[in-house]
Amino acid sequence: xxxxxxxxxxxxxxxxxxxxxxxxxxxxxxxxxxxxxxxxxxxxxxxxxxxxxxxxxxxxxxxxxxxxxxxxxxxxxxxxxxxxxxxxxxxxxxxxxxxxxxxxxxxxxxxxxxxxxxxxxxxxxxxxxxxxxxxxxxxxxxxxxxxxxxxxxxxxxxxxxxxxxxxxxxxxxxxxxxxxxxxxxxxxxxxxxxxxxxxxxxxxxxxxxxxxxxxxxxxxxxxxxxxxxxxxxxxxxxxxxxxxxxxxxxxxxxxxxxxxxxxxxxxxxxxxxxxxxxxxxxxxxxxxxxxxxxxxxxxxxxxxxxxxxxxxxxxxxxxxxxxxxxxxxxxxxxxxxxxxxxxxxxxxxxxxxxxxxxxxxxxxxxxxxxxxxxxxxxxxxxxxxxxxxxxxxxxxxxxxxxxxxxxxxxxxxxxxxxxxxxxxxxxxxxxxxxxxxxxxxxxxxxxxxxxxxxxxxxxxxxxxxxxxxxxxxxxxxx
Length: 478
Fold this sequence. Notes:
Elements: E1 8-9, H1 12-20, E2 28-36, H2 49-59, E3 68-72, E4 79-83, H3 89-92, E5 93-97, H4 104-115, E6 126-134, E7 138-146, H5 152-159, H6 185-197, H7 199-212, H8 214-234, E8 251-259, H9 260-270, H10 274-292, E9 303-309, E10 323-329, H11 337-353, H12 359-369, H13 374-384, E11 391-397, E12 404-405, E13 408-416, E14 423-430, E15 433-441, H14 448-467
Parallel strand pairs: 5-6, 9-11, 11-14
Antiparallel strand pairs: 1-4, 2-7, 2-13, 3-4, 6-7, 8-15, 9-10, 12-13, 14-15
Helix pairs in contact: 1-13, 7-8, 8-12, 9-10, 9-14, 10-11, 10-14
């Protein structure tokens, strides 16, 4: 007799994203897309929400996880995904409106409230909001999903299922979906015990491969251990600042759109990568912001967490997290923007040449089989006890051409990263813009807009500095 039951086990790092969450730390990622109303405007001036829901429904087969909810292995409590037999798209895709005249400030306050609310763990862990009434004949599409489901790259891949470069593109017909029954607790427990018991066989296999390829295996083991040591040691000395303190449950969200062409011209004239330009811009903004708060920044060891995708081409389109983390010291006290960029380039070169990049991948592999709760313990320890970083900066590549939702052009898109005891800054390149999203604790950052303004001004300074040419020791980086 065939077994039609189905479940997916969460990896150690995805399960860790769940375990970090508490009453004040919300581990969902989000995005705010701003669209022209265009062909989605209804005769009453609102947005035709049923058409949007139909497009999303037709695309859900590309991401089965969005119809799944959490369950747990009995006794061992490791989380798994099972199909939600009561899945209801109307619950997940919601419709609201801003009070007239619908300013962007009102939208930012609304997004802050949405990001302050935890997702319901008894349902699939995502929500989408169509927000109509934005001035200028526009509407917003606000999406949030738990970090255990997606990282930044996976989120962009998912949006590509409903956003198309062809404004005439129409969604495919909705595919019928029948939820698969979940296995009983006994099978979940049996499978989990068997997986953990397979560790000795895995080690034996690794040993056999090591005997056949001793140099390669020894190098991989050495690199893995070094990467773990460097990942932990590199961020251990961050100085305390007002940015990295315990947070409450309420969020303040802000954003700014900057010129992508200007950032690319800085890269061309002064060297480095687009991400180097981003970090140099953020360095200047953080320094200016802390000075405005009355801090002496010259002696600060200011560090940021920089997520790095380790997702292979074969893994594009898959959900879950395929990221590692680099800990970069930022030259926030350097007044010359050209020198600041040069120092950032030197730092990122060293990090790319170090073993840090693979540290979390190795930790995830070890944790997954042997100690599934170890990754969660490490993430909780980092978020509550260790001062590894002062801020979080994530740069996500997006499409370089305009995209459309049922013919309505997306004008801007701002990512929203989760706040884990630090200020979270995420940015996404799209079309001709570089879209920065800032997420912070509501009470601790009443002056968040000062940081937004400083970011804009710092890119302008870098653009002016690019016209003067590089300092002597800047080199080019592909």
